[in-house]
Amino acid sequence: MENFNALDTIWLILGAVLVYWMQAGFAMVEAGFTRAKNAGNIIMKNLMDFVLGSIAYWIIGYGIMFGGLNGIFGGIDLFTTGSYDTGTVPFWVHFMFNTVFCATSATIVSGAMAERTKFISYLVYSLVISAFIYPIEAHWIWGGGWLSELTIGSWSGFHDYAGSTVVHMVGGISALIGAKILGPRIGKYDENGKAKAIPGHNLTIGALGVFILWMGWFGFNPASSYGLSTYEQGCDVGNVFMTTNIAACTATLATMIFTWVKYGKPDVSMTLNGSLAGLVAITAGCSAVDPWAAAIIGLCAGIIIVLAVEFVDNVLKIDDPVGAVGVHGACGLFGSICVGLFGRDGGLFTTGSFDRTLVQLVGVASVAAFVIVSMTIVFLIIKATIGLRVTAEEEIVGLDALEHGLSSSYADFMPMPGAGNLFAGSGTTSPSEKVSEDLAVPVQVMTEAAAPVGDVKMHKIEIICKMDKFEVLKKSLENVGITGMTVVNAMGCGVQKGNLKKYRGAEVQVTLLPKIKVEVVVAKVPVADVIGAAKKALYTGNIGDGKIFVYGIDECVKVRTGESGISALQGDDQF
Questions:
Q1: Which domains are seen in the chain, by residue range?
Q2: Which among 43, 44, 123, 41 has a CA at the least distance from the CA of 417?
Q3: Which of 9, 137, 168 minimizes the C-alpha distance to 61?
Q4: DSSP collapsed to 3 states, 528-563
Q5: b/e string for 233-254 if b means 16 or more Cβ within 10 A?
Q6: What are phi and psi of 298, to 5 degrees?
Q7: Cβ contact 288:344 at 8 Å
Q8: What is the pLDDT of residues 384-407, one digit of tens each?
Q9: What is the pLDDT of residues 466-499, one digit of tens each?
Q10: Cα separation, 331 vs 324, whole angstroms
């Protein structure tokens, strides 16, 4: 290789390693901003989209990106030695650097569709993005395609230095389309359509992910120079380092202040998203703008992310657990346009010319239209064939349990949110078999000396059932006059020891299943009515429908007033 340069090669390898390390950042952000019962599923997705994406990009994607449609299967020989001119670095180094960028675009989609997407469906659309969607639009911009040569007036060429459009906007738009077709998580919106918060389980892990991503961005942007062997490249890389960091810092500051004013407190999770918003926004123009412009871009991105998250959540009614649409979609679009506004050459605010801005607008509009149409088709085909969304039971119990057979991702695998198939290994009743209602939902009376239910004035009724039955049960109880209840998460199993399953080939003898325990205390409402309402709500005829226990209550005291007995059960006091 006549033009080989060792420094350029080492620089690109270092950049590829840092960008690959961003996979860990995305995994931590997504896991931390969602619930513990899905952490294992999220780790698997972030692992496998890189694995499948690398293979798909190797076989198909790279050839499309740098050879156009003629590059599929042989236009560029990826199985022996490369035929594409990669400048001063070896072919395979060039290939690996572009592979990690492709994987980044695919993994963005995961966060917006977290906690309710089938694992197999995720693998399919992630593979399609890496093999076709990303390579086609990346060819337009980075592979010598039409957008790289687009000329309007005095300006020629759409500019996206490291991927605000190619990587982030594409991932954000794909996430938006996928989350819309998939639908919101159970409980995200009330019956009036008002959004309800579903907090993530580990903000510390989420923050670690942001720091990892920030670090990875120092490979993502500066290494996109494709070299560091000349003085000019050194100046370019130095400017990119500076603009990347300053935009992230000003965005973080802007988000913190904006949420402080808007919400009354500086929002931690939104401020973390603000850091990512600034990094995404500066990625297109990091080499084309000066530090002062990067500071302005970051400040704007820090405010845009808050407005975008609220707009997606409250106006579009699209459930995006991690804010991926706002961070990558909205800020990727904004950052790409900013190249035309703030570019030191041809920028609207620096030279007064609008030509470069028009080129950027045409570019983002073209890529957005392509991704919207293509990904809508992909998601609808998946939905109509293998299905896109898990069942309500799988979503409520958790994808770790029912998609992966993993009791928990934490505490040495102590069973926290769920287990496997509720009917596996029972050896008795399967979902297709019916038993009598009394056998399916047995009632055990737990009064002293086996006293008849009617001999006790007050009763506590304890109902243990599946988690996904709570809303139906609550409405059924309300219909018979129950206005107060205590609800707790519970883990347990009956005489069948839960479902028998295996972990790493060894049989797990006892599996505690996730349940809820609903307790109500009644005096005026007949116990029989409560039992009947509960059985009606819970009965399916299958093992796992639940149990109802009835206890006699000797006394009840209301702390606030000192009232006792039945009087203590009346009024509006909360527990």
A1: 6-387 (1.10.3430.10), 415-569 (3.30.70.120)
A2: 41
A3: 137
A4: HHHHHHHHHHHCCCCCCCCEEEEEEECCCECCCCCC
A5: beebbebbeebbbbbbbbbbbb
A6: -65, -45
A7: yes
A8: 999 999 999 899 889 998 898 887
A9: 888 888 899 999 999 888 889 988 877 776 655 5
A10: 10
